[in-house]
Amino acid sequence: MKVRGIKRGQNIEILEQLNNIPDGTEIIIDVEFIASQIIEPQPPLTNEERLARLNQLFGVWKNQPELAEIFTEIDQQRHAYQGRTIDSLDNQDLG
Known about the structure:
Elements: E1 5-8, E2 11-14, H1 47-58, H2 66-79
Antiparallel strand pairs: 1-2
């Protein structure tokens, strides 16, 4: 029998039903890779590369006039009085 699975940490999640194998049964699994799904780990970025990427991100919102309107609306909503009614203890039935 050959079934597919996904490795997650030290666990292998079987993607198919194994109804013909009772729970608690010890099994032996022959592991094979699917070569197209193996991704080589990327080397860590140098500090200069990291800074260059951050500088690209910092400029993303540059020259977008609608941004000022959006932040103004957010500020107005944050500071709008939401108000609520609080019942006085004098008006409550303390039974």
